[in-house]
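Need residues for this backbone.
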């Protein structure tokens, strides 16, 4: 069972990212700790076979420099990869380019913290209208989907 109230309380506040390409950008970060080894969480997030089980069908080359496409959603280029610690990719959707950085931290042998940071250039006007949704929406459902996927593999 997932405690939605606790999920909401865990989320850090959105902020600004001064080092983004082309100047200041906004960031939204979401994180979740899973009862799974870092190698399993890494594989679930980087394997073309496993990603559709909890997120969306994906095609392309899931390797450094490769291009990917999530069916009916974003695509992009994998710009950095340090298995099983992190990967960095462009997030191209609706004619706009933003970036995602996904980090994995082994908290214990069977507990892994996943952190997804979405970085985007967003005007003050758009931020005032949409708040964190101006950067990207749906990450909350991604971490829930991954949680269900990983827990289904446990006895």
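Answer:
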């Amino acid at each position: 069972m997932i405690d939605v109230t606790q999920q909401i309380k865990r989320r850090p506040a959105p902020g600004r990212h001064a080092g983004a390409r082309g100047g200041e950008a906004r960031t939204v970060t979401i994180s979740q700790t899973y009862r799974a080894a870092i190698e399993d969480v890494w594989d679930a997030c980087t394997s073309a076979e496993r990603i559709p089980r909890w997120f969306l069908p994906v095609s392309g080359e899931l390797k450094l420099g490769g291009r990917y496409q999530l069916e009916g959603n974003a695509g992009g280029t994998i710009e950095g990869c340090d298995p099983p610690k992190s990967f960095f990719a462009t997030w191209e959707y609706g004619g706009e380019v933003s970036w995602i950085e996904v980090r994995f931290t082994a908290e214990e042998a069977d507990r892994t913290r996943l952190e997804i940071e979405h970085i985007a250039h967003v005007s003050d006007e758009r931020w005032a209208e949409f708040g964190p949704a101006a950067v990207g929406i749906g990450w909350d459902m991604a971490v829930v989907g991954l949680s269900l996927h990983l827990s289904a593999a446990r006895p």
